[in-house]
Design a protein that fits this description.
- By secondary structure, the chain is an all-alpha fold.
- It is 73% helix and 0% strand.
- The protein has eight helices and no strands.
- GO terms for molecular function: DNA binding; sigma factor activity.
């Protein structure tokens, strides 16, 4: 069970076992990086944020409350760092959707890439809060209860906010000429 494994690793870290923290990094690095990337749309920012999150987690591991999942705790650190990075960021121009891949793609792959870029571009027009909900539910496949725990709100609130976020994403996609098929 991941909760038991995480609790054991955290205890080993607190007892001075640096390798245990390396294990926590291996377990959560990819998912945290992917969330940061989806939120910032910048690989370097996502790498920096992920590193900062693990540094802060290491420094403040003693404050982790074992009554909650370790992922919930480190995820909150990630979201705080991500939102701070977005707030510090200077306004930037959106990517030109007409950019093509460097290598030629077969027709099917090119269409898939174009749709993916349009969806990603539409996702980036959402507020960070809406984007976070979409990423958690549809890209990381978390359930409503799990998202509720991560966000510290009731599951009904998650469902309501996610419904609104989906509506906004749908509107942004229609504005880009993408229609459900």
């Amino acid at each position: 069970m991941t909760a038991d494994r995480d609790a054991s690793l955290v205890q080993r870290c607190l007892d001075g076992d640096g390798r245990a923290f390396e294990s926590l990094v291996r377990v959560y690095e990819k998912v945290l990086f992917n969330v940061a990337l989806r939120m910032t749309n910048d690989r370097e920012d996502a790498r920096d944020i992920t590193q900062t999150v693990f540094l802060k987690a290491w420094r403040h591991l003693g404050t982790y409350d074992r009554r909650h999942k370790f992922f919930s705790w480190i995820y909150r650190i990630l979201m705080n760092e991500t939102l701070n990075a977005l707030a510090r960021r200077r306004p930037s121009e959106p990517l030109d959707e007409r950019l093509v891949a460097r290598e030629p793609w077969p027709d099917e792959r090119a269409h898939e890439l174009q749709v993916r870029e349009q969806v990603h571009g539409a996702l980036m027009t959402l507020t960070p809060e809406d984007r976070e909900l979409i990423v958690l539910r549809h890209l990381l496949h978390h359930g409503y209860e799990e998202i509720a725990e991560l966000k510290g709100v009731p599951a009904r609130t998650v469902k309501s906010r996610l419904y609104t976020a989906r509506q906004r994403l749908s509107h942004a996609l229609r504005a880009r000429g993408v229609h459900a098929s």
